[in-house]
Amino acid sequence: MADIIAETDRLVLRTIEDGDVALQDRVLNTPAVMARLGGVKELHEIEAKHAKSRALYAQHGFSFLFMIEKATGEMVGHCGIKQVDNPLAPNVGDHEIGWLVREDRWRRGYAEEAMRAVLEWAFLRVQAPHVVALTSHANAGSWKLMEKLGMVRREDLDFTDPAFGAEDNPTIQYSLTRDQWESAK
């Protein structure tokens, strides 16, 4: 049974369950949604990410979550906290936040609403000293939201990842400390 981590005006943020692979594949694993994230994933890749997320939650009390729309009960995205795990990143192990919203719910403010709840979770319950978010220059929607959340561009944390094409390199990072978050609230 999933744990509810947070509720916002329009969303319930819940942990990922064993049976959620097909749901994520059907709703989020589309060319448009996955365009800046390395493209559509195979089922086994989604299964592996879900297993990793559940293990992280069991061990550390944080993970990625599903965003459930209260009005419909439908899954509209996922978001949460993980550890930076790309070995090319200079800050492996940092608390990384991220989000993904299904295409038919874009531009409704769901990512911002969910991420404000995730930041509260990260700083008040997980006790993260700071968080980072990773994207590329091409993903303007993501870095604009990072800035709206009060995050600061960290060029010193950029890195090149050959798993992504030239358009999505380098990987750029933004960060936010607990003090910055508290003063921006």
UniProtKB/TrEMBL annotation:
It holds the Pfam family Acetyltransf_3. Residues 27-179 form the N-acetyltransferase domain. InterPro entries: Acyl_CoA_acyltransferase, GNAT_dom, N-acetyltransferase. Gene3D superfamilies: 3.40.630.30. GO terms for molecular function: acyltransferase activity, transferring groups other than amino-acyl groups. The keyword rRNA processing does not apply. Keywords: Transferase. The keyword Plastid does not apply. This is Acetyltransferase. It comes from Qipengyuania flava.
